[in-house]
């Protein structure tokens, strides 16, 4: 089956008729349908499929250790794009087809992985499946995670027939290196006029929860000067975040907020807001977050509100294996570029596995949105680049 055929098969899964975006949150019907599709494609190719208790899937071509792992994830952000994650999975299957059509037999195993809950859109922790597989997140902590509806991760996984596995996943010990293909989440390749690129590393990034507390009151009867409005404190903090990030060339985003009681005619008593921050260095990230905490506290003093900041996740800078990146980039002359987005590749690299990434050009430069794009010719070029890479690493 060609890449184009596979892409047509999965295009409708989890797609919103109104926005054309994708809702493939972990352990929901749409994401489970995607997992079933992957299983069927692996069976079609005679690949040996296994699953760990954390929801990660791995399909093997060949036996033994020192495998070259490729793949990505199948879940999406809320109202996300089609390519983020599934492009890497479909391309991995297609790359196996290309190698077989070439008559190539790998001398070391090739594995295709599907990591669970990469986006963190449901339980708030990005790359949860790979973090559990590598042991970077403990099962004890994971079992206590809740989604927005208050459902425990442990219960959600149990309903899906899974049970969080203790410690590092056994299959990971068979992996010698990891190469992940992904749509580019930015415009580097557009500017460089290249269909494919290779990643140099990932900026450090994290998520912080800001809880602004004030006093609920009537929207009409309460004079402006008498209010203790946490929404105002949040709004001023969000403006400072934008100003500071623009001034220093970094990234700061408040993309999710929850107001209580969330009434149109009421001053809220609390506003919870989640900051996503990404910087060129860990020192710059620390400085940016510290400056926002200070600005929020100062504004709270003016508004008669309070603010508490909780770090929910933090990913340190990742430098991908330079020799591996150069080896992958050289045959096609692909440019080597940085990325500000987090990936399972970053988790595996942090866990000590030599890791590299291939990017496919995104003509819009937009991601985590229905406007995320990749041309079919570029997707096929990505499949060929991945096939060449797997052949180079396993011959």
UniProtKB/TrEMBL annotation:
Keywords: Hydrolase, Metal-binding, Zinc. Its cofactor is Zn(2+). The keyword Metal-binding applies. Zn(2+) 2 binds at residues 84, 119, 368. Signal peptide: none annotated. PANTHER family: ALLANTOATE AMIDOHYDROLASE, ALLANTOATE DEIMINASE-RELATED. Belongs to the peptidase M20 family. This is Allantoate amidohydrolase. It comes from Nocardioides jejuensis. The lineage of its organism: Bacteria, Bacillati, Actinomycetota, Actinomycetes, Propionibacteriales.
């Amino acid at each position: 089956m060609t890449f184009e055929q596979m892409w047509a098969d999965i295009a409708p899964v989890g797609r919103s008729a109104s926005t054309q975006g994708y809702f493939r949150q972990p352990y929901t019907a749409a994401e489970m349908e995607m997992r079933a599709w992957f299983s069927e494609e692996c069976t079609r190719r005679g690949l040996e499929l296994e699953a760990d208790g954390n929801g990660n899937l791995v399909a093997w071509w060949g036996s033994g250790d020192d495998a070259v792992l490729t793949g990505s994830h199948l879940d999406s952000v809320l109202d996300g794009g089609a390519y983020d994650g599934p492009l890497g999975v479909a391309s991995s299957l297609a790359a196996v087809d290309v190698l077989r059509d070439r008559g190539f037999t790998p001398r070391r195993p090739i594995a295709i992985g599907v990591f669970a809950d990469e986006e963190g859109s449901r339980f708030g922790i990005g790359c949860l499946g790979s973090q559990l597989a590598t042991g970077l997140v403990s099962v004890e902590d994971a079992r206590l995670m809740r989604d927005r509806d208050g459902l425990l991760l442990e219960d959600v996984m149990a309903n899906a027939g899974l049970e969080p596995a203790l410690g590092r996943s056994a299959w990971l010990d068979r992996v010698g290196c990891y190469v992940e293909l992904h749509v580019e989440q930015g415009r580097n390749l557009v500017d460089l006029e290249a269909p494919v690129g290779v990643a140099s590393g990932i900026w450090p990034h994290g998520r912080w929860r800001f809880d602004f507390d004030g006093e609920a009151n009537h929207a009409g009867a309460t004079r402006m000067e008498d209010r203790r409005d946490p929404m105002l404190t949040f709004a001023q903090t969000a403006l400072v975040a934008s100003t500071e990030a623009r001034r220093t060339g970094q990234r700061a985003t408040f993309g999710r907020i929850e107001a209580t009681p969330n009434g149109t005619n009421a001053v809220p008593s609390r506003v919870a807001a989640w900051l996503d921050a990404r910087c060129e260095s860990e020192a710059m990230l620390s400085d940016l977050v510290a400056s926002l905490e200070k600005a929020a506290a100062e504004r709270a003093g003016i508004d008669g509100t309070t603010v508490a900041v909780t770090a929910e996740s933090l990913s340190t800078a990742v430098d991908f294996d330079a020799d591996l990146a150069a080896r992958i980039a050289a045959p096609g002359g692909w440019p080597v570029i940085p990325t500000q987005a987090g990936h399972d590749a970053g988790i595996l690299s942090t866990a000590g596995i030599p890791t590299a990434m291939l990017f496919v050009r995104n003509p819009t430069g937009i991601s985590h949105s229905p406007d995320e794009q990749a041309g079919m010719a570029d997707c096929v070029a990505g499949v060929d680049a991945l096939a060449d890479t797997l052949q180079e690493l396993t011959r």
